[in-house]
Specification:
It is a single chain. This protein is 49% helix and 8% strand. It has a 4-stranded mixed β-sheet, covered by helices on one side. Strands 3-6 form a two-stranded parallel ribbon. It starts with a strand and ends with a strand.
Length: 265
């Protein structure tokens, strides 16, 4: 069985989960959490980021390379079109989504959790002890803002990211106004990239992520609850209904010498 080394809230991991589900491939999720466990994954793959797909003895890193690998080894339900123009558009849109929605979405989520103590507590894994959740919930917003400066998430950078995301969502709404998918009449890598990378802006309505049910349909204020962008999120949730498998069991966690933590891509 295929194995996906992942982080549940990594947008890039979610992108790959969508690709695997669309192709109807069975896989086992191996959850890796931030910390010293990244050393083991580096030993196995030569890098520290998720997602990593293991197929037999082969490790494939980077979500884009995983998509290309899946098309080459599991050609049913192709992700990348053969038509040259559609192929170019698909790859260009996927790269844009990685660099725009993927990166800016983290900054937008940081804004949301820095404003809402209950929200950031709910995002912690269920395995985290309640006493630690209480500590995290009690961190003052000003402290989080100060920490944000250290990772390039200053208030100015966050607000610029949110402004850019508003433009991105408006553009996506226009592109999808008279088309079921972003490139042609069939879903492609572009659709699954945009859909998966948008989870930090607004979590899907259904049981697709290992999160408290109270967070379904919730997200970044001003984006998730803005009616202007509702056509995009409605399209995304329809894509999930069509192709994403709902959760049926708890996420597989690593044991022994397997990697237990990683830097999120």
């Amino acid at each position: 069985m295929l194995e996906l080394y992942q982080f549940e809230l990594s947008q890039y991991s979610e992108k790959v989960r969508l690709l695997l589900d669309y192709k109807g491939l069975e896989y086992r999720k191996i959850e890796v959490t931030p910390g010293i466990g990244q050393v083991e994954l580096f030993r196995l793959t030569g890098q520290r980021q998720v997602p990593v797909l293991k197929d037999g003895y082969k490790y494939i890193v980077d979500s884009t390379e995983i998509a290309k690998y899946l098309d080459s080894q599991y050609p049913d339900r192709p992700l990348i079109p053969q038509d040259s123009k559609q192929r170019g558009l698909c790859l260009m849109m996927e790269e844009w989504a990685d660099e725009s929605i993927g990166i800016k979405g983290r900054k937008a989520l940081f804004y949301a959790i820095s404003q809402d103590q209950n929200f950031r507590k709910a995002l912690l894994p269920t395995s985290v002890p309640d006493v630690f959740k209480t500590v995290v919930e009690g961190v003052p917003n000003d402290v989080l803002k100060l920490l944000g400066f250290g990772v390039g998430y200053s208030p100015e950078a966050v607000q610029r990211a949110i402004a850019d995301l508003k433009q991105d969502l408006e553009a996506l709404c226009l592109l999808l106004a008279d088309s079921p998918y972003l490139v042609g009449d069939e879903p492609t890598l572009a659709d699954f990239a945009v859909a998966g990378l948008s989870i930090l802006l607004k979590f899907p309505e259904g049981p697709y992520l290992d999160l408290p049910a109270t967070l379904r349909g919730k997200g970044v204020p001003g984006l998730a609850d803005n009616l202007v962008y509702e056509p995009f999120f409605a399209w995304r949730d329809r894509l999930y209904t069509q192709f994403r498998k709902p959760l049926t069991a708890p996420t597989q966690r690593t044991t022994g010498t397997a990697p237990t933590s990683i830097e999120i891509e």
